[in-house]
Predict the structure.
Amino acid sequence: MTNFYDFWQQKTKKMFLSDKFLGTIFCILADSLFCLSYFFVRVLTTYGDQIHGDWTMCFKEVITISFSIPIFLFLWMRGQCSLPSWKIIVLLLCAAFFCEFIGVRSHITAFGLIGIVLGNPVIRTFTILGTAIISMVFIRERLTLLKTITMFILISSIFVLAFSQLTVSENKVHVHFDSTFLMGFIFALITGIGYAIYSVLLRFILRKATTEQKNVTTSEPVSIFFVVSIVCGFGAICGAIFLLKDRGFYGFINVPASAWLFVGLAGILNVVCFYLKNLSFRYATATKVATFSILQIILGTILGIIFLGEMTNVFIWIGLSLSILGIALASQTS
């Protein structure tokens, strides 16, 4: 009995401390909170002309770095982390460009055009497929049979979700691909590509930084809070520049109090989300991290239907079912 107990304890401890388990847990926590953050962003798009998309981007990221920069400086002064090399910083700025300038700006626009129920599945699917393809080509992550099946299911889901705009009456199929839907779909595609390149770059950066500093005694090769500060700082600057360009200083005033509340909540959640998401890249492949963002589809759909009254149909539910199957398979990958 004692031997069995010791064996079970060692086996359990090994499982819960494995990279596979830690990667899965960090992905689940990050994407659950990211969904809530993006729900607040979606609410902000309902304000119409009262606020501007770049206002959302600017202040959400400003709130994020107001937390991340002091934490990084505190850890750095205590010697618990160090500044990365200039090469790593340049790569981080490149990653920030694809995440914030390409990804977040397009994300906000896509939500405003097609909503969270349809926008989330399309964005996440393009992100996962793009990440899988780019990571195979540039950082040589293996395409296993399980990943191939997962990608096939996700590709199927994107086609099903695209057909959510079909209706049938009098035995005729009517297509409602109006300009709003098409533009929303295009911005969702751009968002997915931006996030995919960011995911692969960040995975490469963390691996490269670990190799460069393997002989340096620090708790982290690159502080996650430094990464968050660079990425969100880039987004805050971009948002401010384009907001001033489009609306001038008027874009910073006459904003409803409730909008400040939602952007504040989104910004605070961003700190936790980015930390957990970037931490997950230490324990999981870029493809697995991207695939777990399917969780945002499930939770986003629930929030969109309950709180925003967004409509669904049979195609959307079939697409969501395929997405859920995809995450079940993704949880088994390394």
